[in-house]
Amino acid sequence: MTDLTDLTVAGLRDGFRAGDFTAREAAEAFNTAVAGAKALNAFIVETPEHALAAADAADAARAAGEAPKPLAGVPIGMKDLFATKGVQTTAASHILEGFTPTYESTVSQKLWDAGAGMLGKLNLDQFAMGSSNETSFFGNVISPWRRKDGGNAALTPGGSSGGSASAIAARLCPAATGTDTGGSIRQPAAFVGISGIKPTYGRCSRWGTVAFASSLDQAGPMARDVTDCAIMLEAMSGFDPKDATSLDLPVPAWEAGLSPDMTGKRIGIPKEYRVDGMPAEIEALWQQGIEWMRDAGAEIVEVSLPHTKYALPAYYIVAPAEASSNLARYDGVRFGQRELPEGANLQDMYAATRAAGFGDEVKRRILIGTYVLSAGFYDAYYTQAQKVRTLIAQDFEKAWAVCDLLLTPTAPSAAFALGEKQADPLAMYLNDVFTVPASLAGLPAMSVPGGLDGAGLPLGLQVIGRPLDEQGVLNAGLAIEQRAGFSARAEKWW
Amino acid sequence: MGLDADASRTRMAVDTATVKRIAGLARIAITDEEAGRIAPELDNIMGWIEQLGEVDTSAVAPMTAVIPNMLRLRDDVVTDGGVREAVLANAPQAEHGFFAVPKVIE
């Protein structure tokens, strides 16, 4: 019998429906895989009982002859940024250690309503701030991948959804939730050779998701292939009256709409994404992606997104500014940790609580945000950044006049070693150069594996689409997936 | 007025005193040693961000919504409540059905 942990979301769903195995067998197989992979540190909390309860409900429904739910038989991982009722939710921070929500986030509730079970809460960069999963209070997540030079250096799974990426690549779960503020779904997906899609801003409700930068935060799925991303995204999306920015639109049948035929599609290649110092292997993969698109019937057009170089600095004003506001709620009064030095008054308690509860990167971003919003600097920094953001969005709008989708690399490098970029915050920020522009414009974008570099590490290609054109993005992703034939997987060492 | 008016001046360096002032605004306790370590980091980041000043934005409106959306209104009715225990469940200190904090009035 095949190892159930090798099955995709579609494979598990269909196998369960066909009676090839029970949902409980599938849940047990993944629970065992999770329990045996502590070395990856992908999970902050394991919830095997949650996965088994959902599985038993699915098996009972099947025995009673009921129509199966969309994700019946499928256990998944939940990024620890989504509030889960009765299960500790930390955002990988000390300040929320022990926080046990009395409510469920909309996205996770939708997944449970669809029949999925939870294998556990996945590690991430603290408050989703980071690109390497090295800012978690609960320790680094380790990528299952290693360079083939035999050095066995521990590599980053990317961030901030590093636990999700590592767990999927190591077959600890077939799919997981991610969140993407500046690339936190796409960059880790690229680093571990899986797929991930950030939908249009507003597709997935932000309610119950720990907020980082509210005008940018978007949930999305990460999985082994494009079809699974479509299945997961369908379950996660939809209007939510509890989120003021939720889009009141029906959820398309993305899985049923999948087609790898790019005939009549114009694929834009933004010339500004040819950045200095980009490794030749990434340039070569991009060219290969262009060839695959042509082969799928697409027409290739060069486009210009002239404000691309300003996207990162604009992002590093807007995101920290929003974060400094959002994270003001952690004050040691209503939830989370409290630090109360002897004889402290209320103000001292706030300051001590936040000093003890936030990690260095979180503090750094709160300080940047506070600085750019402070009196005398607001217009020069924040207003200017929001104006540049308008120009970046206009760049994309102009591009859509001549093309339907954009094709770019996902990241300017393959996965780097843990510790390699930690000393220089700015070098770390630059890793998001290709993912941040689509975030600033709220556009749907996905990463799919394209191949391996010379060191044997995965590289990803990014497809960016018009607002609400997740179908176009997924279809282009599928066209790449079918031509890349990416089947490499990390050799088990954990 | 945007950054243009300031661009002619040399940017003010983010020094230790600035970091301590900002940390005070952000309600984060910080030691002199930490402020001294963070100042050059922030100065480096702010120096890099400064390039935004090159962009002519004189005819551009700041972005307010990434995806056009309508601000919805709902009926002015109570939709939840009566969940005091749930609200207080994660409080570091709750007394007599309230959040408790250190003494505020001397």
From TrEMBL, chain A:
UniProt KW Heme keyword: no
Q: Which residues form the Amidase domain?
A: 36-474
The Gene Ontology biological process annotation of the record reads: translation
Q: What catalytic reaction does the record list? A: L-glutamyl-tRNA(Gln) + L-glutamine + ATP + H2O = L-glutaminyl-tRNA(Gln) + L-glutamate + ADP + phosphate + H(+)
> What keywords would UniProt list here?
ATP-binding, Ligase, Nucleotide-binding, Protein biosynthesis, Transferase
Q: Where in the sequence is the active site?
A: 79 (charge relay system), 160 (charge relay system), 184 (acyl-ester intermediate)
- Give the source's domain of life in one word: Bacteria
Q: Write the Enzyme Commission number(s) for this entry.
A: 6.3.5.7
GO MF annotation terms? ATP binding; glutaminyl-tRNA synthase (glutamine-hydrolyzing) activity; transferase activity
Q: Which Gene3D superfamilies match?
A: Amidase signature (AS) domain
Q: One GO term of the cellular component aspect?
A: glutamyl-tRNA(Gln) amidotransferase complex
Annotated InterPro entries: Amidase, Amidase_CS, Amidase_dom, AS_sf, GatA
This protein's assembly is summarised as: Heterotrimer of A, B and C subunits.
Family statement drawn from the similarity comment of this UniProt entry: Belongs to the amidase family. GatA subfamily.
Function text: Allows the formation of correctly charged Gln-tRNA(Gln) through the transamidation of misacylated Glu-tRNA(Gln) in organisms which lack glutaminyl-tRNA synthetase. The reaction takes place in the presence of glutamine and ATP through an activated gamma-phospho-Glu-tRNA(Gln).
The name this protein carries in UniProt is: Glutamyl-tRNA(Gln) amidotransferase subunit A
Which organism was this protein described from?
Answer: Sphingomonas yantingensis
Gene name for this UniProt entry = gatA
